[in-house]
Design a protein that fits this description.
Largest sheet: 7 strands, parallel
CATH superfamily of the largest domain: NAD(P)-binding Rossmann-like Domain
Strand order of the largest sheet: 8-7-6-9-10-11-12
Helix content: 25-40%
Number of domains: 2
Structural class: alpha/beta
CATH topology of the largest domain: Rossmann fold
Number of strands: 12
Distance between the termini: 15 Å
Radius of gyration: 21 Å
Length: about 325
């Protein structure tokens, strides 16, 4: 019996690649998605293991008539049309636990970098300038209020570290989780997003990109934040409106921001946010740790082969498809 063909768009962790080689045939990685070779290979694929790049809508899936499983190496699956996959009998899996620790660590690092003005200090020294202390005076996070929007796995981990560890006052807004989770993570529940924004010295986003959250962090959102507060986004770029964030920074209403994600990725080189001195940036790399990459890659590949062996995987995003899946 021939081995199943697995299509990938980026290099996976070596252990995940080894699992692919042992159990299937690898097609890719395809750094350029819209090329004849990528489309031709997709047409023969039994499964795909993908990043957040491929726009996996119904038309994309129709180019893969043999496709049985879409495995997202990560937690987010906003680039996958779940309804379209379900209608075609395609299972969608993800690795929700895998990126928790590195992404939470990055968010906390961002918070500390903003508070201590590390970017400005580093840039000045790199340019040969020793700035007077008053010009790079930072602030302490001790006793400050942290507002977490979305208290899922990553937001919950941020709360655990910043509350007991950094002794911040932690507020959280998440209408979709039970009250006991707030208590378990050491966070105080607020009844509305406006209430959180009005109190927080630091606001960090940890919610998925959904029709409800897209564009949520807009002009009104930033206006409701405290003057001189800080904004952090390691979730999804589509949750914020970059032009409105830029205006809030230029006006001085926000002290600074840190972003791992952008409305368009890769973000254009002329994006004005790239040249704002009080913005810390990374290229959608918050989950990019050796350990996290292993968990994401191995988890996605393992579940892809489980589906292809007709074994129900643990992180099936569309469970309603199982009894009607392609075989």
């Amino acid at each position: 019996m021939p081995k199943p063909l697995i299509w990938i768009d980026f290099p996976l962790h070596p252990e995940a690649m080894r699992l692919l080689q042992e159990n299937g045939e690898i097609s890719g990685p395809y750094n350029k998605l819209d090329v004849p070779e990528a489309w031709a290979a997709l047409a023969k694929a039994d499964g795909v293991v993908i990043s957040s790049r491929p726009p996996s809508d119904g038309a994309w899936m129709d180019r893969a008539p043999r496709l049985r499983v879409i495995a997202r190496s990560g937690i987010g699956y906003d680039n996958v049309d779940i309804n379209a996959a379900t209608a075609r009998g395609i299972c969608v899996v993800n690795t929700p636990e895998a990126p928790t620790e590195p992404t939470a660590e990055q968010a906390i690092t961002f918070i500390l970098m903003l508070a201590r003005r590390i970017k400005e200090s580093d840039r000045a020294l790199s340019e040969g300038r020793w700035l007077p202390r008053p010009q790079i005076e930072g602030t302490e996070v001790l006793g400050k209020t942290l507002g977490i929007v979305g208290l899922g796995r990553i937001g919950g981990r941020v709360a655990e570290v910043c509350g007991p560890g950094l002794r911040m006052r932690v507020l959280a807004y998440d209408p979709y989780i039970p009250d006991e989770r707030f208590w378990a993570r050491g966070a105080q529940k607020v009844s509305s997003l406006d209430d959180l924004l009005a109190q927080a010295d630091f606001v960090t986003l940890h919610c998925p990109a959904t029709p409800e959250t897209r564009g949520m962090a807009d002009r009104g959102f930033f206006a409701k934040m405290k003057k001189g507060s800080f904004f952090v986004n390691t979730a999804r770029g589509g949750i914020m409106v970059e032009a409105d964030l830029l205006q809030a920074l230029k006006s001085g209403h926000l002290a600074a921001a840190a972003l791992d994600v952008f409305e368009q990725e890769p973000t254009p080189s002329d994006n004005p946010l790239l040249r704002v001195p009080n913005v810390v940036l990374s290229p959608h790399a918050a989950s990019n740790s050796a350990e996290g990459n292993r968990r994401m890659g191995v988890g996605a590949v393992t579940q892809a082969f489980q589906v292809l062996r007709n074994e129900r995987p643990p992180s099936l995003v569309n469970p309603e498809v199982w009894d009607n899946r392609r075989r």
